[in-house]
Write a structure and sequence with these properties.
This protein is of the alpha+beta class and 346 residues long. It has 12 helices and 14 strands. Strand 13 and strand 14 form a beta hairpin. Helix 6 packs antiparallel against helix 9 and helix 7 (221-227) packs across helix 9 (291-305). The longest helix has 15 residues, at 182-196. The chain starts with a strand and ends with a helix. It binds iron/sulfur cluster (SF4) (2 copies). One iron/sulfur cluster (SF4) is lined by residues 231-237, 270, 324-327, 329-330.
């Protein structure tokens, strides 16, 4: 594919042309923070965002998503994917999308997720400002982002756009792009490397070493109860996570009592009822009843269990969970560094 350059003066016209052709979603300001939302104008686009409140997975896997609608005539699919552009995704969120792409397609091909995914062009963008809890430079260091169609980097006087797919290449038609010079390409590489140096938090060890020790700590119930002592079981750390993908499915009936819909809702393994199952006749069993067991499960999912399947940890270092946790205990860096530094040393 190609590497092109567009001048800053031509950038707004490029974004406008995309918006006029197809729905474009990108980072926009929401009070003092940022969210991915549909763009109405190029002025709304905030490529200087640090991190968004919710990850962009919400476009493919919304918090509430109808799967099937039914009435007297039978069920009909509730599949409504539309062509769209997701613009300005940081590389750690692309890595998270890569993970959900795999998990929603490898065995049971999830048409409701993949339908949205396959109709979306993803444009990644360089990290201009780093969030105060980010550690994307030190987690999953060997895992490269793959799911984007193009990568945009802001440099002096304009933007370098590197395309990776035909979809990405098609974006060039919307703007006054010219082939990038060697100097512009080198500057873009420098800009992206510099962002990695600005992470405020850092894991000290590599993926394998962390996975081995965290797994070894599994049976230390006192450790997990201690780490989770202040947990409210609110599930916020799950809700904001770009790699969490658990959901609950519920059928709801309309007032006519003959039609309704089957909807899936985001679920959260830190909440008290997540692992509660029915034993029949009104009896239930909760197989992760204690806060410590739920807290441990989340850490194991992020640092251990999925690594062989994903080729790296199921955490991309966005820092959203750390920022969202009222008790300030969810930060994977603090939890893992604490285990790495002290567990098994006594
Ligand atoms: S566990 Fe936390 S830091 Fe890691 S990907 Fe999820 S929200 Fe981001
Ligand atoms: S956000 Fe914090 S308090 Fe809430 S469930 Fe997660 S660890 Fe517990």
């Amino acid at each position: 594919m190609t590497t092109s350059f567009i001048r800053s003066d031509d950038f707004a016209a490029f974004v406008t042309a995309m918006i006029e052709a197809v729905p474009v979603y990108g980072p926009v300001a929401k009070r003092s923070r940022f969210v991915f939302a549909r763009l109405e104008s190029p002025e709304e686009l905030r490529l200087d965002y640090d991190v968004t409140i919710l990850p962009p997975k919400k476009l493919f896997f919304p918090p509430a998503q109808d799967l099937v609608r039914f009435d007297d005539a039978g069920p009909t699919a509730a599949l409504e994917p539309t062509e769209k552009i997701l613009f300005g995704v940081h590389f750690y969120d692309v890595k998270a999308i890569d993970q959900t792409d795999l998990l929603f397609s490898e065995r049971n091909y999830d048409v409701n997720y993949m339908g949205h995914r396959e109709t979306t062009t993803i444009v990644a963008s360089n990290i201009q400002n780093v969030s105060s809890r980010a550690f994307f430079a030190s987690v999953g260091r060997d895992v490269r982002p793959r799911g984007h169609d193009a990568f945009l980097t802001a440099i002096d006087g304009g933007y370098v756009l590197e395309t990776r797919t035909e979809r990405g290449e098609a974006l060039l038609h919307y703007g006054a792009f010219a082939p990038a010079t060697e100097a512009q390409i080198e500057e873009a590489a420098r800009v992206n490397a510099a962002a990695l140096e600005r992470c405020p938090e850092k894991l000290e060890q590599g993926t394998e070493e962390i996975a081995a020790k965290v797994r070894a700590a599994f049976g230390d119930d006192a450790l997990w109860e201690r780490l989770a002592a202040d947990c409210f079981s609110c599930g916020s750390c799950n809700t904001v996570c770009p790699t969490c993908y658990c959901f609950d499915v519920q059928d709801t009936w309309n007032v006519d009592q003959s039609s309704g819909q089957r909807t899936r809702y985001w679920d959260a393994c830190l909440t008290e009822d997540f692992a509660k199952v029915s034993l029949g006749e009104g009896a239930t069993e909760n197989f992760r009843e204690s806060r410590g067991s739920r807290f441990r499960h989340r850490v194991m999912r992020k640092a251990v269990y999925l690594n062989p399947k994903l080729g790296g940890p199921a955490c991309v270092g966005c820092g959203r969970c750390s920022a969202a946790c009222t008790a300030d205990i969810a930060d994977p860096v603090r939890v893992i560094n604490q285990i790495m530094a002290s567990w098994g040393a006594e």
